[in-house]
Design brief:
By secondary structure, this protein is mainly beta. 10% of the residues lie in helices and 49% in strands. It has 4 helices and 12 strands, in the order E-E-H-E-E-E-H-E-H-H-E-E-E-E-E-E.
Length: 159
């Protein structure tokens, strides 16, 4: 089963074993849920409590009630099984990079990169005959097919 990187434990908070996780994962609402399983150093941990604080995701884990019990987890990477994410038709960015890009007029391209142009605007860099930047939230993206592993885009005149 595939593990998906969701963040890194950067420090503890308080004396009750709460951990600060720094994460830029786009589907946090599917990860940081009480009762969900996190994977740290190939070992499973269950989320006992969760809250958001500033830019951090704060969790306590089952069987750990003291700061001294969780110190060994500091600076560790946090993962989750892809099957536990329950994304349905949603696609992770790392998956999208493996997809083909097809235009409505029949051109085929390769998705090279996905990045944030600003905090709310994701952009896809596609290589057709030339390099094209396509805003992810735009009406130019007509369809994302998880089954066929392709993204259908409608390029505007001049692209």
């Amino acid at each position: 089963m595939k593990e998906v990187y969701v963040g890194r434990i950067v420090s503890t908070h308080g004396i009750k074993g709460e951990l600060k996780i720094l994460s830029d994962f786009e589907f946090k609402d599917k990860v940081f849920v009480v009762g969900k399983k996190l994977i740290i150093d190939h070992k499973d941990y269950i989320i006992k409590s969760y809250r958001h604080h500033k830019q951090f995701d704060m969790v306590t884990l089952n069987d750990y009630n003291d700061i001294n019990e969780v110190l060994f987890l500091l600076r560790k990477k946090v993962y989750m099984l892809e099957t536990d994410l329950e994304l349905g038709n949603l696609v992770l960015d790392e998956e999208l990079i493996t997809y083909r890009a097809l235009t409505t007029d029949g051109k085929c391209g390769i998705i090279k990169e996905i990045f944030f142009a600003s905090p709310n605007n994701k952009v896809i860099r596609v290589l057709f005959d030339k390099e094209v930047l396509i805003p992810f939230n735009s009406p130019m993206i007509k369809e994302i097919s998880k089954d066929r592993k392709e993204v259908v885009v409608e390029l505007i005149e001049g692209m």
